[in-house]
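INFO  loader      accepted 1 record
INFO  loader      residues=311
INFO  predictor   begin
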Amino acid sequence: MEINLGTLKKVDIRKIWPLEPEFSAWLALPENLKLLNDELHLSMLCEETEAGVGDFSADILAQEDGGTRKIIIENQYGKTDHDHLGKLITYAAGQNASVLIWIVENARDEHRAAIQWLNENTSDNIDAFLVKIEVFKIGDSVPAPKFTILESPNDWLKTTRTTIDYGILTDTKKKQLDWWNKFMDYAMQREKFSRLFNRRKARPQHWFNLPLGSAFYHISLTAKKEPKTLGAEVYIPDNKDLFQHFYAQREAIENELGFKLDWQELPESKASRIAIKHDGDFTDLDNATNNFLWYCEKAEAFRKVFPKYIR
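INFO  predictor   done
INFO  writer      dumping tokens
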């Protein structure tokens, strides 16, 4: 049987984006940043391009969708150099960013080693990536960008888990960390969930955040010790107008979700919650499957419904 296959040809990135700022502007668009998100197993939202840091400016300042971490993206054509590495670290310090992403055309070995050193010797909250950008065509096809991870936090792609020293945690914190790690293992095996959400780091706390495509609100899954309850909520950190916007459409939202919600404006707090509760014990890992399924179904429903009512 004869099989006709095309030849993959590399395209000079300057023919697509003649200047680095043009590449940055392209990458900052949500549909393009998603390509990088998918490769890095992150959920980023662009906040600003050419973000000011003193007399300098970072190519892209982003925020973790569903989280609080800031992200610096520095782009470089040609071979990597000390100047851009220094800028990456300077911008991260100036913006108090905990994720550093250096996107390059060609990486020198010493700079790969530098990113590796950062991941091995800085705080567990700091994640550094070195990423190669290439463009390919097959015959006369439309050019396609390709991101390749050259350096990443230790075991990032294998587990995407926190490297917290397990031995220093209290018994409750250990159980919380185990709970969310097991939940992620379960959830990523569920096709519908894995299409909507990337794997995220588990942390020893009573909540676990998931993105909703906006810096203004996100999903928060919860596991409380007393009383033994689980929760799923749309968490709005600091935007009462957004809460009221959703509240005005609560009947339509609940009808589409298929279940009632507890609408908590929390007037004495900056934050607001739109929540649903469920009886469950996060310390009982042997009988966790039904609870993990409940989490997944609620997160999937929130992701499907709520963004419709903000557009």
